[in-house]
């Protein structure tokens, strides 16, 4: 059993922290939202008054926050959490943020002798609740060995992507590819349907052929093809357009910083930002399918 300080109890952090309580760890939590804290109190965690109180004496500190500024804000500076932690603590930031603040926190932790990993997740709210998230970790090998023990109680696939920041890069690569193949799948289905094909039959054909991909396999974007997919439930999320647009913004920054000509990714970002600007931000990201209908 480990002593865990958990900061950020939103849609993802809440169920992740609950899984740590269920696994028998001693979990102290903090969030700015009293409702989020109450949920964890009900689940058996100790709610702290401040982030500093939550991490006192912790073997592991885990954060699940919206963006880079929140992560830098809680960890860095004279009154930041890093300055208050013991060297034996392992710090895992599971938020999806841009690589530079992640590396900055990693470097500050390293300078203080504290093990830090960026450990963003893939899988969404359902996987967070089921404890089946995938973690993509960036940091030192010995920190990864310690991280793995606790991440296993929240996830199924735990990868060491490379040094500090590598987890965020892996997440950016994956989600850019996801956006591209989702849009490509929508275009292929729409083209087939407008030429008289049944979307179910066309999906079966592509699944058995070289167009096979994750969007077709488990998340078909055409309504009625897959009963449990968001497309068959008015595009209720699932994984929101707002989050995909955010992740694509982070991926574009990575491509730009590394000099990659990622035209497909840029176009995907443009299409998701347009859908977001038109008021579709809270819908599932497979609702990009509907934009093909609109522009017919
Ligand atoms: P959320 O907005 O539901 O939760 C964020 C929580 O952080 C909120 O409860 C907020 O009150 C809290 N918070 C903000 N600043 C704080 C501070 N200074 N101290 C303490 N608490 C603070 O967001 P979410 O959906 O849980 O996402 C969290 C992270 O996970 C994001 O980086 C997101 O990109 C990533 N992510 C989300 C999903 C998803 O499907 N929701 C999937 C994969 C990754």
From TrEMBL:
UniProt keyword annotations, A-Z: Branched-chain amino acid catabolism, NAD, Oxidoreductase
Catalytic activity as recorded in UniProt: 3-hydroxy-2-methylpropanoate + NAD(+) = 2-methyl-3-oxopropanoate + NADH + H(+)
GO molecular function: 3-hydroxyisobutyrate dehydrogenase activity; NAD binding; NADP binding
EC number: 1.1.1.31
InterPro entries, alphabetized: 3-OH-isobutyrate_DH-rel_CS, 6-PGluconate_DH-like_C_sf, 6PGD_dom2, 6PGDH_NADP-bd, HIBADH, HIBADH-like_NADP-bd, HIBADH-related, NAD(P)-bd_dom_sf
3-hydroxyisobutyrate dehydrogenase-like NAD-binding domain residues: 165-291
Signal sequence annotation: none
A Pfam family the protein falls into: NAD_binding_2
UniProt superkingdom: Bacteria
GO biological process: one example: L-valine catabolic process
Pathway in which this enzyme or protein is active: Amino-acid degradation; L-valine degradation
Top-level class of the enzyme under EC nomenclature: oxidoreductase
UniProt-annotated catalytic positions: 171
Domain 6-phosphogluconate dehydrogenase NADP-binding: from-to ranges: 4-162
Family membership noted in the UniProt record: Belongs to the HIBADH-related family.
Protein's name according to its UniProt entry: 3-hydroxyisobutyrate dehydrogenase
Organism: Kineobactrum sediminis
Taxonomic placement: Bacteria, Pseudomonadati, Pseudomonadota, Gammaproteobacteria, Cellvibrionales
Gene of this entry: mmsB
């Amino acid at each position: 059993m480990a002593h865990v300080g958990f900061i950020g109890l939103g849609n993802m952090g809440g169920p992740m922290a609950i899984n740590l309580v269920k696994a028998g760890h001693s979990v102290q939590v903090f969030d700015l939202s009293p409702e989020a804290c109450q949920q964890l109190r009900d689940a058996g965690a100790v709610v702290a008054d401040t982030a500093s109180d939550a991490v006192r004496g912790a073997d592991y500190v885990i954060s699940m926050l919206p963006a880079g500024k929140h992560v830098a804000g809680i960890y860095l500076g004279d009154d930041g959490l890093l300055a208050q932690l013991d060297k034996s603590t392992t710090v895992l930031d599971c938020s999806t943020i841009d690589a530079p603040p992640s590396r900055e926190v990693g470097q500050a932790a390293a300078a203080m002798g504290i093990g830090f990993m960026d450990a963003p997740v893939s899988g969404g709210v359902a996987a967070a609740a089921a404890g089946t998230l995938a973690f993509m970790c960036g940091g030192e090998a010995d920190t990864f060995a310690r991280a793995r023990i606790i991440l296993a109680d929240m996830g199924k696939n735990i990868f060491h992507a490379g040094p500090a920041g590598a987890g965020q890069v892996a997440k950016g690569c994956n989600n850019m590819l996801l956006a591209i193949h989702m849009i490509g799948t929508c275009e292929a289905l729409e083209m087939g349907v407008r030429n008289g094909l049944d979307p179910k039959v066309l999906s079966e054909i592509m699944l058995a052929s070289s167009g096979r991909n994750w969007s077709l396999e488990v998340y078909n974007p055409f309504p009625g093809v897959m009963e449990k997919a968001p497309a068959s439930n008015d595009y209720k999320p699932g994984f929101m357009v707002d989050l995909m647009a955010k992740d694509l913004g982070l991926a574009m920054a990575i491509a730009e910083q590394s000099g990659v000509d990622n035209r497909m990714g840029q176009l995907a970002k443009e299409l998701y930002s347009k859908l977001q600007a038109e008021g579709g931000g809270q819908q599932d990201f497979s609702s990009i399918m509907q934009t093909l209908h609109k522009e017919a």
